[in-house]
Amino acid sequence: MPSYLEVGMVTIIRVFHKYSGLKGKLKKAELKDLINNEMNHFIMVKQHNKNETLDELFADLDQNGDLEIDFKEFITLIAMVTSHAVHRNLQTKLPLQDKQKIAYFIP
Ligand SMILES: [Ca+2]
Predict the structure, then answer these.
(1) Ligand 1 centroid, distance to 77 Cα (angstroms)
(2) Exposed, middle or buried by CB within 10 Å (0-12, 13-18, 19+), for 2?
(3) Distance 40 CA to ligand 1 centre (A)
(4) Which Gene3D superfamilies does the UniProt record give (predicted)?
(5) From the CA of 50, how far away is ligand 1's center (Å)?
(6) For a disulfide at 85, which of 37, 44, 55, 90, Cβ 3.0-4.6 Å?
(7) Residue 27 in 3-state DSSP?
(8) DSSP labels for 42-96?
(9) Nearest CA-CA partner of 85 in 69, 104, 72
(10) Distance of CA 35 from the midpoint of ligand 1 (Å)
(11) Entry pTM
(12) How far does residue 70's CA lie from ligand 1's centre (Å)?
């Protein structure tokens, strides 16, 4: 029987492929949909300057500059958000208050 961690790892892979499709890379709109649909309890997306902050995040994640997010680059986002959650001791406090969510999108 897989462990909770292994199930979580498989879930990350499945969610990535759900949004990236067969090409295995996320375009900016796909990353935006993934964040909005799958990470909205951990990341607060402010309506104000939403596109500007998404552009900033995308540029930070796109380490090889090919204008797409591959799995290795995506896992950086997962690590960043998960690390933030550990520091906030969030595992027992879902859903979060806005002020507890990762502040990356806040200008
Ligand atoms: Ca890239």
Answers:
(1) 13
(2) exposed
(3) 23
(4) EF-hand
(5) 21
(6) 90
(7) coil
(8) TB---STTHHHHHHHHHHHH-TT-SSSB-HHHHHHHHHHHHHHHHHHT-TTSPSP
(9) 104
(10) 17
(11) 0.78
(12) 6
Per-residue model confidence as pLDDT tens digits over 13-28 = 999 999 999 899 999 9
By residue count, the chain amounts to 107
pLDDT attached to residue 27: 97
Alpha-carbon torsion, ordered 14, 65, 33, 18, to 10 deg: -20
Task: Give the whole-number percent of the chain exceeding pLDDT 90.
Answer: 52
Give 62 Cα–ligand 1 centroid separation in angstroms.
4
Q: How far is the CA of 48 from the centre of ligand 1 (A)?
A: 26
Six token digits for residue 89: 């001791």
The CATH superfamily holding the domain 4-100 is: EF-hand (1.10.238.10)
- Tell me the CB-side half-sphere exposure of residue 18, using CA atoms within 13 A: 11
